[in-house]
């Protein structure tokens, strides 16, 4: 949970990363298929999500480089 930005990041068994608005509980972003196995951990700061998975991958998603949805991750 990123209490500063009001965001909850969830890594899942379905190999996706989901970002929720902490106040409303609404799903803001769904990032399916970032790995070939279930997620072990997902952490975030104001700009990035770092996730690790059971298949030994580490994914760093930086939303500062013009990905769709950046407006949902920044205040």
Plain-language structure description:
With 75 residues, the chain is mainly β. It contains one helix and six strands; from the N terminus they run ββββββα. The protein has one helix at residues 70-73, and strands spanning 7-11, 16-21, 27-32, 39-44, 48-53, 58-62. The strands form two sheets. Strands 1-2-3 form a three-stranded antiparallel sheet, with no helix packed on it. A hairpin with a 3-residue loop joins strand 4 (39-44) and strand 5.
Could you outline the blueprint of secondary structure elements for this entry?
Layout: E1 7-11, E2 16-21, E3 27-32, E4 39-44, E5 48-53, E6 58-62, H1 70-73
Antiparallel strand pairs: 1-2, 2-3, 4-5, 5-6
- Architecture per CATH nomenclature, i.e. the level-2 architecture: Beta Barrel
Taking Cα atoms only, what radius of gyration do you get, to the nearest Å?
Answer: 12 Å
Estimated share of beta-strand residues: over 45%
Helix content: under 10%
Oligomer: single chain
CATH uppermost class: Mainly Beta
Inertia-based shape: globular
When the domains are counted, the total is 1
> How many angstroms separate the termini?
16 Å
What low-confidence regions span 5 or more consecutive residues with pLDDT below 50? none
**What strand order characterises the main sheet?**
1-2-3
Instruction: Determine the structural class based on helices, strands and strand pairing.
Output: mainly beta
Number of beta-strand segments: 6
**Element order: H for helix, E for strand:** EEEEEEH
- pLDDT averaged residue by residue: 76
The largest pleated sheet is described as: 3 strands, antiparallel
- CATH topology name, in short, is Thrombin, subunit H
InterPro entries: WD40/YVTN_repeat-like_dom_sf, WD40_repeat_dom_sf
């Amino acid at each position: 949970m990123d209490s500063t930005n009001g965001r909850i990041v969830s890594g899942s068994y379905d190999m996706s990363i989901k970002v929720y608005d902490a106040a409303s509980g609404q799903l803001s972003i769904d990032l399916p298929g970032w790995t070939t196995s279930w997620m072990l951990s997902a952490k975030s700061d104001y700009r990035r999500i770092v996730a690790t998975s059971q298949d030994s991958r580490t994914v760093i998603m930086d939303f500062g480089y013009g990905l769709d949805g950046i407006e949902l991750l920044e205040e």
